[in-house]
Amino acid sequence: MSKENTRSGSDTIKDYGKGAAYMTGKVIDAVAPYIPLFDVATKLIKEIIDLHDAAQYNKNTCARLMERVIDAQGAIEKLKRTKKINEERFRDQNFYNTFQRFTNILTKIKVFEEELSKMGNFRKTVEASMIKEKFINLTTEFDSTMRDLNFSMMVDNEAQRKRDFESLEEDHDEIKKLILYARDSVIDKVEKVVQEVQVMKSQLESKVDNHDQSADKPVFKPPKIDTSQLQFCRSSLAPHNKGRIKKMYKGVVEVECKSINLSEKAKVQTYLAMIGKLGICPYILKFLGLAKIEGKDVQVSEWTELGSLKDFYDRRDIGWETKVVIARDICRGIAFLNSVDVFHHDIRCENIMLTGRYEPKIANFDLAREFNEFSKEIPDMKVLRWMAPEKMEGKRYDTKCEIFSFGMTLWELAFEKYPYDKKFDKQHLEDLKRYVTNGCREKIGFGKAKDQNESAIQHKLKEIIESTWHQDPDQRPNLGELLIKIEELSEKHVEPDALPKIYPDKQLDLDGSRYCADFEEDFENFTLNDNPDIKTIMPFEDGLKIHQQIRKNESSEIINEKRKKAWECFSDNADMGNSQAKYWKGYYLWEGYHVEKNREEAVRLFKEAADDGVSGAQLRYAFSIISKKEKVTPAEIKEFTTYLTMAADKGNHVALYNLGDLYLNGKFHVEKNRELGIDKLKLAAAYGNDAAKKLLVQLDVQ
């Protein structure tokens, strides 16, 4: 640019300032032209970061873009704080033009991230060369503009390029897998309805924003079904179908008719029209339309012969291979909903319907909400059992909450029972909230697998469930990763077109609770060693099972033999650093089982295991500090309380009872705190501690 043009450009900005001074009667502010640009850039950067946080696909590529805009965010804040020093730059037309281009690049990055992170755009993103080319063009332009603005970047160019390439390759491999697994059943369906659903959602949001919930002229309407097309159909006499209204639609399609309240007519009809569109996905219950039966409004949906998944597992046991297929299809349905920007909000087995062919259908969208909307508080204990800890604390519901609920549903399907059913009843809602928000979860322990394939399924399901349960939402897998894991599990361990494996109720030992003393196993051959050069050790879990099989009415010879095997297992595994084994080795030393008592060594092992987070060890170490001592020092009391609290925080009911007693009565000179003491006693009682229940009755506490 020539000096003349530069001068002219500078005069332009000065003229802007003079006009502002004339209007406001204040001194020219060189920053004034940039204020709208700062606002635009800040808003775009926040939107790009939010897109990254919500992204379920191409997460790594989105992360590389986010890293750059975070650098820009810091540079802009620094520029705003040092405006006096940078006054000359603010008056430079070239700098102004470059900043304007910078906001345009941010807009392009935002649009690109939106395309990358949506399943509906997979056909566009499957061409790796196209994505790579667009990414390189955008980042090159961004990096160049950052340099022109003299904005510093935290990562050097060579390291950044390497990370960029690795992220592009990793994401492309993930998308190829997703297209391989879910193209026909999910991706193609998303492409067909995503725009219609988006328009319907915007219509719903508009009605809420304008408080127009009672208008009777909906833009979108669900299909109307003439009553004459719904013919009598004999329902199954099975108990689970009692109360359900079954009809034959057009003489060929079995349907269910459920009553519905249409008081908010426009909103409900638009909502139902949207639900009708979702039925294009084979894993969502198909809503066919509205009808009137005996003067009452009903919604007509496809018939599901087996009822809800919850009803079904209450009547039958589901084989592990069949559980995997059901879990896979539910996950596909959730991925579809996510890709059209719809949350279910209440994923659990009771809201999954099963067809006569054992196909799961996500249903009961009564609590479903539009994307990015605050969901209403749901105080119902049944719903709370599946709820993410951050949602319990009142935070916005998002995909990470849905993934947590899916993980709880996987646990429910695996063990065929409600989560926390024996720990908390409906009277202990707040206790359950505290339990989950403190990071505690249900136990995952399987019964004996019938073969290697079943064992591999159990191991992988445990891994998947635990990943979805992470206390930190950002550490949970995204939907793309989750779907691939379950698809690969199904592909590897379930035969294509295999018949469902269904058994009589309570036949399978799902959680090991039926594993008892009459288990026929030759303990002499518990560990096999075909390699004389390698000394193998019995797995810790097998040693623990041997210990748990010991019965008081057995002969002393049998008891001693079992304790010998358990001791050897605990000792070997403890020497290898297994924390649980350290605790059990310490327990055997404390009690003198198979070996001479050595309580000093036992205490040392208890402390090591306690510091590794083993709750039983934390409790035993705590009491070892104060046992058989006439006088306990303040330091010992502090250590005792610390370890007792650690055990209580992990849900140990004995620790909770003793901690409650400690605070309630001010024992060991601990300051009395009746409220805290009663809270701990309530938790202990909820876990089934009889002493806590008795004490609460004496205190007349509900």
From TrEMBL:
GO terms for biological process: cell surface receptor signaling pathway; necroptotic signaling pathway. Transmembrane segments: none annotated. Keywords: ATP-binding, Kinase, Nucleotide-binding, Transferase. GO terms for molecular function: ATP binding; protein kinase activity. It comes from Gigaspora margarita. It comes from the Eukaryota. InterPro entries: Adaptor_Cbl_N_dom_sf, Kinase-like_dom_sf, MLKL-like_MCAfunc, Prot_kinase_dom, Sel1-like, Ser-Thr/Tyr_kinase_cat_dom, Ser/Thr_Kinases-Pseudokinases, TPR-like_helical_dom_sf. The keyword Kinase applies. This is Kinase-like protein. Residues 231-489 form the Protein kinase domain.
